[in-house]
Amino acid sequence: MGVTILQQFPTENRTGPDTIELLSKRIKALGAMQHGNFLVDCETYTSVPQLGHQRTVHVLHNSEQPATVFSILDTGTKTIPLATDGLFDLLMMKMSSFYTSKKQTKAESKGPRFEIGDFCVKLGTITVSSNFKGILVEVEYKPCVVPAMCWDLMKEFLQGFLGFSVPSTPPTYLQNRMQELYTPIDTIHQYLEQFMIYRKSPGIGVRT
Amino acid sequence: MERDIEQLNLALNNVKILRSNVRLVFESLSSGLRTEHGEEGKENKFILELQDLLTLVNNNLRDVEGAVSSLTTPPGPFSLGNSTHLSQETTQERQQLYGQLVNSYKWTDKIREYSAIAGNILATNSFNKTYKTFGTKRRKTQTSNHNVPPEVIENLITSIDRLFSDVAITSSRPFVPNPLIQASLGRVLKAMIAFKGLMIEWVVVKAHSESNDLWTESRYKVFRKVTENCHAAMCHFHSPMMPELAVRSFMHWFHSYITLFSAPCKRCGNHLHCNLPPTWRDLRTLEPYHEECK
Fold it and tell me: Where is the signal peptide (chain B) (predicted)?
């Protein structure tokens, strides 16, 4: 598990599949090989009013860590991340009387997964309750575990195939954690951050 | 020597020509009068032809004599030692021995010649910094560097450990007395270094998350490349006369990989080339370069 950067790619009047096609072509031209597909999904549960102060639980799955369920509890003042095994899904079902999910908010990012050198590139199509919302590009540099050490290097790589739509600063979530060891939960935090943006963004059939 | 052989060759050639022309004389004599002499005055023609041939032979003979007179006689008989008896060998398979013997003589001659030249070159470029002057100053005699007491190696390792604050070293001794150390370079990488006495025997570079096994390569391309370069540096710094210095300089060089992911290439200014960061560090200046840029 190495440092991962999550990055939006503007679609600019193109359709989702067209954009994926364009990026696939670019990355393949650089010498990447496709290694399967990937899927990250997120479901959000909110506590029922009887429990008092409202809390939100985001439950996420990442196909890169297939045996793990990630959950992030948002109390309003702080967030508590939790990594558990697959049984957590069943536990959430048991607790359906305390935590209810809004079905319309299920967000997903899925698409092809490429490997090129020590990099892993994932081109994800974002859907919120099966409405297309945008394109997310995930780039992982596997040998390095400290974001501060390899940010410049990753920025160069990103610019290499995304062009100059790459911002010069790291994602907001990572900015405070540049010197810390990178863990899979950090990727999940970045995905959640992006999903929250897309849920609020206007699109075709917005439901928040 | 070279001139002698040339003249000998010339003389032998002259003898060959002489022999072939003498043969022509006898051939002509034995066949007697032939149809090509025609009808008229055929005896005269035949005698003329014979005369021509004989003059040619005479000239050839003069050439041979000239060539022979310019040859220098060898000083005394050649002493071949026991190898003279080889010529009297009767069994088939041993008859080839003579040729092989001559070949091996040639080789020893060449070796003597080359070693003399090498000796001359080395004598003019003496190693001022090495053991010779060093030893006379300190009177330290070190007979071997792969069979040293474990305490000496232990001291070396602890001194290296103190040298760099961001290199953490743990050592184990699976094969007494040769230690195997694991050097963690910050949060960048770790290296397994196997010692043979005071010399570095083997280096493997891996990510922190990978196993400490000495025999498997890293699964990441960048660390495989760094391992390769470490081997090159290990050979470069190797010095049998001053093994401690060799280990120290190697560790100094190795420490420069602390910037493996963060430093751009000195030549092209980029971070990536072929999807790899600059994996080479200059051996003297420790500056980062891509494999292709160095």
Answer: none
